Amino acid sequence: MPEKKLRVDFMAMTPDALSLIYAAFRQCYHAGFVADMWPKLLSGEIDPQVQADFVSKTMESGHDSPIEHVSMTFAVEGISRACSHQIVRHRIASYSQQSQRYVAENDMEYILPPAIAKIPEARERFESFMAEVQSAYTDLRDILVAHGRKSKANEDARFVLPQAAETKIVMTMNCRSLHHFFHLRCCNRAQWEVRAVADRMLAICKDKLPAIFANGGARCEQLGYCPESPKFACGKYPVRENLA
Amino acid sequence: MPEKKLRVDFMAMTPDALSLIYAAFRQCYHAGFVADMWPKLLSGEIDPQVQADFVSKTMESGHDSPIEHVSMTFAVEGISRACSHQIVRHRIASYSQQSQRYVAENDMEYILPPAIAKIPEARERFESFMAEVQSAYTDLRDILVAHGRKSKANEDARFVLPQAAETKIVMTMNCRSLHHFFHLRCCNRAQWEVRAVADRMLAICKDKLPAIFANGGARCEQLGYCPESPKFACGKYPVRENLA
Amino acid sequence: MPEKKLRVDFMAMTPDALSLIYAAFRQCYHAGFVADMWPKLLSGEIDPQVQADFVSKTMESGHDSPIEHVSMTFAVEGISRACSHQIVRHRIASYSQQSQRYVAENDMEYILPPAIAKIPEARERFESFMAEVQSAYTDLRDILVAHGRKSKANEDARFVLPQAAETKIVMTMNCRSLHHFFHLRCCNRAQWEVRAVADRMLAICKDKLPAIFANGGARCEQLGYCPESPKFACGKYPVRENLA
Amino acid sequence: MPEKKLRVDFMAMTPDALSLIYAAFRQCYHAGFVADMWPKLLSGEIDPQVQADFVSKTMESGHDSPIEHVSMTFAVEGISRACSHQIVRHRIASYSQQSQRYVAENDMEYILPPAIAKIPEARERFESFMAEVQSAYTDLRDILVAHGRKSKANEDARFVLPQAAETKIVMTMNCRSLHHFFHLRCCNRAQWEVRAVADRMLAICKDKLPAIFANGGARCEQLGYCPESPKFACGKYPVRENLA
């Protein structure tokens, strides 16, 4: 019944990612077949910096569909069900999430919101409640099993599990969808938890594929201003009205 | 803090739905322009039964993309967060869901699983726990507000809310996506709650657009056999191995 | 074998569209169930102008997913296969297109590009070539039929049909996808033909649902500046670098 | 102006594909975090055959979403514009296609349908027509350039290019979308050209990832019967009515 911390692990990325994106961009404008150019891309005969520069420049002009050819897969643990519910609303993505129907929560772990952690009184109330949750879950499971509902006991007992209950998820998004995810979820207006997930994913993306994610993040990072209405702006960048 | 019952309301459907689907099918194979045929479809000069028969026959041959032109919108209340989390995994759909960040749960309603409702001991345990939830939520909100976290109090206090917490959602799916939803969620293997939602939606669909949904439902309803492996089959239809 | 002109017909829109979008927006932030508010929305008891203002304001703050609940269906004729190939690249949409496999082109109609129409010499060359196309198509069909390939004669003879060959398509997009379509295709950098289609669709959308489409169109119409790099900018709006 | 033959090149696949799919499946039902199991999967400490068997069995029970985590990228040349128009109708995929607006067709290559190739009279008519196409394209480009339309000359001249005109495309699909593609396009009812593309892609998939694609192909390959109506059945498998 302990608190669980966020962990975001990189699992996989389409190989030769930059070259693949470069090849896809080139195929749009090139008379030849990029498969013929592919060995030169892989061998480095075509300088990776040249590839990166070409891709950056073309993306700046608004043509970003070729970055879809590369996908990234992450394994995430230490997030609440509240957070996973937000994540799976992103529809251009693939998810495999731990099931509360199949996995019993005999030792439920939970996410402790930082604002609650900082206030001793709140933290105490929260933690004592988590103990009550575990007890209610176990009691209900036992009762259901005792009444011959063994195969469905998890499924029904989980109704008492909190939004704070920890979950794990494997998620795959292509680079274009990742950029969109970061636009929304790295914004200071996003909820703290999904923002923490997005920030970790973005750091991995910047590390693995800098040519594509160098200026990734909330919309303001690309725009140079905040697209929100002034009353919601966080102040990191000026709002558009104050640009000039 | 009462129990809340499922309610599925029909909100909207693309108008002249059968004619629209018929027109879309016809456009694929017809030399003329269906917009020229449209007035005759709307006036009934082309018999609706003829339209329905044509559509059914073409769908049977596996050509079902034209039914995507018609969408249905439902408003659903009285479902748990566990259930809504399952629903929004269907990605070819649009959702607007009540936010626990914006709406305070001062009088939280909840979903009581039928299997728990039937066992007095379980029901009592469940209901007394729901009272504890309300109390923990209110306490945490108060503490957060007292510590100057008013604007984020809902957002963090909701971590104690249970999967059972009632939610409301407006959802739109096109007919092809609806059929897929019913294939998975009307199956007896689906969880009871999402199956109840799917069954209500299917009843509305059959009523509003019988030509498209007459044989809607779990896969077995169209196949005439159960596509699951024998150990999971519910027995309503024979499994494929036992067909002959 | 005549030239064919563009025609874009409105076929259907989700009924009570503004109210449906308003209801979906409200459900996100509202404690009650929007289905209970629905009759008041339909009766006008809640002023449509209030609904429109609420929706516009919320969209401006970047929350636009509820407009997905409303879809529009158009029937388009008088476009080339080149144009339809561009249109169907928009993936959040549904299409039913006239098949060249099923429909014989015994009197092929074609699209004449305006730039060619304006130069007599070019127009003459184009039109005489279209006559050659018809003749090649008919010859090939006849040969294939004479060699016992009747059922596949259209399918193979159509390989000689030009990109200019006229096609017809029924298309459905939700309002969010429509906005995206207009962002790209109403831009002066888009190809003239798909821009003409997009402009007609936009005019219909503005007429049918002004609260949602009032400032629809190319990105610049919402941004107040051109997001393209300076060398591609058309001049209608200043580029971002020149904003201040 | 020569004929061009189909070529389908494998470009990329998500690395450690089987293990990634296995890990995603396991995360759904497993109490632990698959990232902790990942090194054992990569090192082979968990036998690849065990992984393959687990995945096959789970897929058979109808749970196939985890195979979405793996994508394949192909480069295709030697297909007609007719064929690419069919391919891009598959919406759960990413495409980068050679542009006829940017690439001049000074030496247009084309696809010769096999049925036409087999009939000398048809072949001759087809080939002489392709020469006419090249001549019309070049004439129109020259006229447009002479009239000051250089930058748009390709864009407008291409209206005379035939459906047979060769195109090149880079395409990425995840494994679930690939299976769907094969269901439709490997069927003997599919058009010969897109079927040839699908067959090549399937052969690559079977080679690269046999655990996922062993029984890939048209629907009949999984079902053991033909799901088409009897009048369209090719005879490779019995239709359902004749199963027993």
Regions with little confidence, pLDDT below 50 for 5+ residues of chain A? none
- Tell me the helix content of chain A: 40-55%
Q: Give me the side-by-side strand order of the main sheet of chain A.
A: 1-2-4-3
Identify the quaternary structure here.
homotetramer
Q: Helix count of chain A?
A: 11
Q: Which protein chains make the most extensive interface, counting residues with beta carbons within 8 Å of the other chain's beta carbons?
A: C-D, 45 and 45 residues
General form of chain A: globular
- Note the gap between the termini of chain A: 54 Å
Count the strands of chain A?
A: 4
User: Which secondary-structure class do the elements of chain A indicate?
Assistant: alpha+beta
Mean pLDDT of chain A: 94
Order of helices and strands of chain A: EHHHEHEHHHEHHHH
Approximately what portion of the residues of chain A adopt beta-strand conformation?
A: 5-15%
Report the sheet with the most strands of chain A, covering strand number, pairing sense and barrel closure.
4 strands, antiparallel
* Gyration radius from CA atoms of chain A, angstroms: 23 Å
Function (chains A, B, C, D): Catalyzes the reductive methylation of 2'-deoxyuridine-5'-monophosphate (dUMP) to 2'-deoxythymidine-5'-monophosphate (dTMP) while utilizing 5,10-methylenetetrahydrofolate (mTHF) as the methyl donor, and NADPH and FADH(2) as the reductant.
Keywords (chains A, B, C, D): FAD, Flavoprotein, Methyltransferase, NADP, Nucleotide biosynthesis, Transferase
Cofactor (chains A, B, C, D): FAD
Family (chains A, B, C, D): Belongs to the thymidylate synthase ThyX family.
